[in-house]
Design brief:
single chain, 265 residues, 7 helices
Length: 265
Amino acid sequence: MTGEVIISTNLTRMSIFQLYGLNAQYDQVALINFTFIDSRMVPNVSLFYKDEAQTVWHFFGYTRPLDTPICGFLGKSCPVPFWEQYRILVGVAVLVIILMFLIICVGCGCMISSRRAEQAKINSEWQIPFALLLEPEEKRKAHGTSRRSLQSSIATGATTTSDFCENYTIMIYEKDLVLTAKFQYTSLSKTDMERFVKMRKLDHENLNKFIGLSIDSSLYISVTKLCSRGSLQDILSRGNFSMDYFFMFCIIWDVAKVGTVALMM
C-alpha cells in the first residue's frame, strides 16, 4: 500500500491510500481507495471496480479465497474423510443391522415352523395312516385260503364289503372295528381340511362318529364308527328286524321332538 500524505490547515494529516492489483493483462490498476479525514480511525472506502470476481479474483478462479485455509495456517486442521472418521461406527451399525435381519429371519422361520407344526398336529387328529388300518382275522384267513379268489378280486377291482347295503369295508383301527369307505383321489383344499377337523370334533348321539380319513394310499379311505346294527337303510332293507320297547320309545321320542321343533319354527 502506498499513497500521498496531505496536511490540512489545522495541521492534521489527511492520508490517502490506494490498493493496487493486476488485471487480466498483468497491468497495475488501482482497486480500492482509503481516505482518512482528521483523526477518525474509520476511513472512507472507494471501490474502483464493479465486479469483484472478474476484476480482483480472476487469478483465483473468480472466487474469493477463504479467510482461514481449509487445513488451517499450519496445515494441521485438514478435514478427515468420512470413512476414516466414522468407519468404526459404520461397521458397528452394519453389524447391528445384519444381526437384526438375522433375528427377524430366524423369528419368521420359527413362526412359520410353529404354524406348520400346529397345522400338522391339527391334521393328525383326522389323518389316519393306512398302515394302521388292519383287516379282521377271519378276512385274513379267508384271503389266505382263497388265493385265487383274491387274485380275481384284484383283477376285477372289486372291494370287500360288509353285510351292510352300503359299500363299506369292516377293518380294525386301534383294536376297534370300524367302517371304511373308499373314494377316488382328489386334491384337498384348506377348506376341506378345516371341515375334516370340525367333523372329527363333532359328536352327537344321532350322528355316526367320523374318526378320520386315510390319504396316504392310492385311494382315500374314510373311517367311521361301526354301528353293529347297520345303517337305517340296512335295517329297513332287511324287513325282518325286531324292535324292543326301548328302541320304539326312542323313535317315537325323536319324531315328537322333531315335530315340536318344526311347529315352533
